[in-house]
Amino acid sequence: MDAFAVSIGKGLTVHKLRHVDALKTALWFGGFQALFPLLGFFFASTFSHYVTAVDHWIIFALLAFIGGNMIREAFEEDEENAKENAEFDWKHMLPLAVACSIDAFAVGVSFAFMKVNVWSSVITIGITTGAFSAAGLYIGRMFGARWQKPAQIAGGVVLVAYRSQGAARASRRAVMRMAMARREGSREGGAI
Q: What percentage of residues in the chain have a pLDDT greater than 70?
C-alpha cells in the first residue's frame, strides 16, 4: 500500500511520464518489497523484536519527510518542479523504496515462523508491488496533468496523514501495554 501511495504521489509530480520511468519505479519498489521480507526471514531470530517495535516510526519519519518535500516543491517555481528525469535516479528512488519496505521486513520475520515457501512468497510480493507501483505512477500522472499543484499538495498531505494514522495506532498500543504492565505489577506488589 505504501509503494502504491508513493507511486501515485510521484506520478502527480511528473510532467512527462516515460515507460522507462514506470519500469524503474516497478523495479525499485517491487525489488525492495521482495528483498526486505527475504532479509527479515534470514535475520528473524536476531532482529525481529527491534524492528517490529519501531518500524512504524521509521516509516512515518521517512514518509513525512517525503510528503513534506512534495508540499514544499509544489510552491516552488515551475522550473524546479520540471525535473522529472532526476526524480527516478537512485538518489530519489532508494530512500522511497527503503521507506516503503521496512514493514516488509516484519513480514519476512513472520515467514520464519510459518510453513511458507519464502521464495515463491517474495517473488509474488515483488511482482505484485511492481505492477501496482507502475499503475500508481500512471494514475498519479493522469490526475496530475489536470491538477498539478493542488494534487501535489494533496499527495504530500495524504502521504503524511496515512503514516501518521499508523504511528498513532502504534502509540496507543504501546500506552495500553505499559498500562497493563503497571496494573499487573501493582497486583503482584500487593500480594507480597
A: 68
- Grid cell in block for residue 185: 505489577
In angstroms and rounded to an integer, the radius of gyration of the C-alpha atoms of the chain is 20
Runs of H (alpha helix) within 14-115 = 19-42, 44-74, 78-81, 90-111
* CA 33 – CA 157 distance, rounded (Å): 24
Q: Looking up cell 498500543, which residue turns up?
A: 173
Q: Does the pLDDT value for residue 128 go beyond 80? A: yes
**H helical segments located in 75-147:** 78-81, 90-111, 118-146
Q: Which residues contact 13 (CB under 8 A, 6 or more apart)?
A: 70, 73, 81, 84, 87, 140, 144, 148, 152, 155
Tens digits of per-residue pLDDT, 138-189? 888 887 666 666 766 777 777 677 667 766 777 777 777 777 777 777 666 6
Longest dimension (CA), the chain: 72
Whole-angstrom distance, CA of residue 125 vs CA of residue 13: 26
107 Cβ contact list (under 8 Å, min separation 6): 36, 37, 40, 125
Q: Given CA atoms 44, 50, 51, 56 in this order, what sign does their dihedral have?
A: positive
Return the C-alpha cell found at 148.
498539478
